[in-house]
Amino acid sequence: MTALAVRRIGWSHPELAAAAVAAGAWALLLGHAEHPHGPGEQYLANLSGWTVMAVAMMVPGALADVRIVALSSMWPRRQRTIALFLGSYVCVWIAFGVVAVAVAAEASVGVLLALAAAWELSAWKWRAVRRCHLIEALPPRGASADAACARAGLRYGWRCVVSCWPLMLAMAAAGHQAIALMALLTVVVAAEKIVVRSARLRGPAAALLAGAALLAFV
Amino acid sequence: MAEPLIRRDAWGLEEEEGTWHPILQAYALGVGVMQERDADDPLSWEYQAEVHGVASGRPPDEFRNQCQHNTWFFLPWHRMYLAWFERIVRAAVREHPEIPTDVKDAWALPYWNYDRGDSTARLPTAFREPQLSDGSDNPLFTPRRDPAINDGEPLSDWAISAQLAMEEEDFAHEAIPGLAPGFGGPITGWHHFGEGRTPAGVLEATPHNDVHGEIGGAGGLMSVVATAPLDPVFWLHHANVDRLWGVWLAQLGRENPTDTAWTGLAFDFHDEQGAPVTSTAGEVLDTEALGYAYDEIPTPALLSEPGPRRRAMPGRPLPDHPPELVGASEEKVELTGSDASVAFPVSEPSSPALLADEGRPSRVYLNVEEVEGEQSPGASYAVYLNLPDDTDADTDPEAYHVGNVSFFGIELAQDVDNDHTGGRGLRFAFDITTLVERLTEEGSWDPQQVRVTFTPLRPTEGEAPAVRIGRVGIYYQ
Q1: Is the pTM of this model over 0.80?
Q2: Per the CB < 8 Å rule, is B176 touching A12?
Q3: Which of A176, B178, B331, B407 is the most exposed place for a label (fewest CB within 10 A)?
């Protein structure tokens, strides 16, 4: 593939840089998994691990929306738009993590996964998933574009938290070393955001999470 | 293969034998039979409407809430829908004791060619009469239309013209911000309504969406996705849209997609026995194989005689890089039944592909994004680019007209209770290449002051439901 062909892919897919950041987060976590923290590890270390985990788990499902937001922006602002949007989005998850890491540290992963399975079957969950996609058009340039983009990222993050909070509480309890569970939940979160008519997944997703809850109990 | 049955123009039928031509009378009686069936019966009127869309909160299934809009499946899905519906009505017609045998044998769904000239833009009389010829209630009449339409006022000229659609050379384009959608709609997967922030195809936008809004008005059956098929004229309107697909194909160089993603996706329906069936686009491309043909597929002379409304650039291939936003409005625009306009500057393009071509775009698009409202106000708004302020008698508004903004489905655009929300509001994308090139040649294209004007196609009585436009933008490609 020629250099021009690679550049052309980038023109059509400005979200690839964000995908690379998510891949980097996964690489960090996989490397880190070989050196698990002990139970007495500092809260801040857990929170930094949570932040990397939030990027690894939440950015993949947002890539399709990020692409649309970027392609709807002025060309010189495309990467700035992505950084502002995803930065705000991840900030919401960090804020959630500040509480979740403290609250869920001693909680049962199995109970939280069972709660996540039940949440999959609620109407609130799916309204929040659908609201994620209601991203408003951004002003074209200047500070108003920056502010609107950051607001859109925060709103996107809040709706994502409403959609996924029990899943991520379970991850807060399991810790960022639980790579297999993290991979499973990432697939669930991304599929719910990306698949057309994703509410059809409510049954399979609930069954999957209930199965994971059972495994956590044994 | 048996001879296909002929779908005939409703106004042609009326001109031939008056309001109650036997084909229209048989349609009324067949609809009446379906309306009496239980709503859970797949052969009932209500069930067939729910195949298109269910009201918010009603549980959909693989048969109901399936209509395809803002997608390249719009035309084939509605062809399937009409073909199975026609068989259900025909079965009811053939069992009806009051219908003569020769009518039963020849019955096919009529179409309404509102753009044939003279008085054909008026709703055919059989749909406006509250009673049948024997004094009984007319199943083809409903008061839930714009009162002016039921009073016999014609639809707006720009709502019924398929000229912009006929000028479009490609059936479908990629679903990507900025890009105009093509004749049949943007390339998507299964797409009930708003799964991907996509605009309607050019034919779906005008006349399809515009005619829905003009007939339904504010709150009428035809203005809402879930209720539109409850109006018996829905089916004649869609038969005309189906016919226009054939008119487009009859032009030199026009082709349907051959991609298996389009030809192979299966959709679920019921046949006239109530048995489940599936159809694909690949199976419905030949209407005669489906058992019907139209009485007239005129070949338009658009390619040889470009009119003032030609907007797309004929023969110029679509660039293989994405469009670039070069300017957009900062503030929202509210439409409340009167003219509104917005102005904004356009920058020089910055993308490598356009810079390599010295900044000259091969295509220019006008996008109207995030069109929201609680309910459709009915009639569409004409969209003009740089319409002169003065009221000079020599000014021809048509020369600045880029298309219409319509509101069919606006109630679904933010409905988070149904599984089809994919973006905020409705979106429109117009190819304005030749208009911008003409304005540039005339010296009236000022990048610092691009102005877009919205003008209602029909006057509204009283206060029209407000509609907001989130952003108006110009894209270069």
Answers
A1: yes
A2: yes
A3: B331
Helix (H, G, I), strand (E, B) or coil at B249: helix
CB-based burial, B95-111: b 16+ in 10 Å, e otherwise: eeeebeeebeeebbbbb
What secondary structure letter does DSSP report for B268? E
**pLDDT, tens only, B236-274:** 999 999 999 999 999 988 999 999 999 999 999 999 999
What is the DSSP secondary-structure string of B12-81? HHHHHH-TT-HHHHHHHHHHHHHHHS-TTSTTSHHHHHHHH---TTSPP-SSSS----SSTTHHHHHHHH
Give the containing element (helix H, strand E) for B163: helix B163-167
CB contact under 8 A, A74 and B325: yes
d(CA B212, CA B224): 8
Assign 3-class secondary structure to B423-452.
CCCEEEEEECHHHHHHHHHHCCCCCCCEEE
Q: Which residue among B177, B189, B321 places its CB closest to the CB of A72?
A: B177
Q: H helices then E strands: how many in chain A?
A: 9, 0
pLDDT band (50, 70, 90) for residue B232: very high
Long-range contacts of A118-126 (CB under 8 A, 24+ apart): A118/A166, A118/A206, A119/A165, A119/A166, A119/A167, A120/A202, A120/A205, A120/A206, A120/A209, A121/A202, A121/A203, A121/A206, A123/B417, A124/A162, A125/A162, A125/A163, A125/A202, A126/A199, A126/A202, A126/B416, A126/B419
Touching check for B173 and chain A: CB below 8 Å? no
Residues of B in contact with A127 (CB under 8 A): 416-417
Q: How far apart are CA A58 and CA A21, in angstroms?
A: 11
Question: Which residue of chain A has the CA closest to B350?
Answer: A75
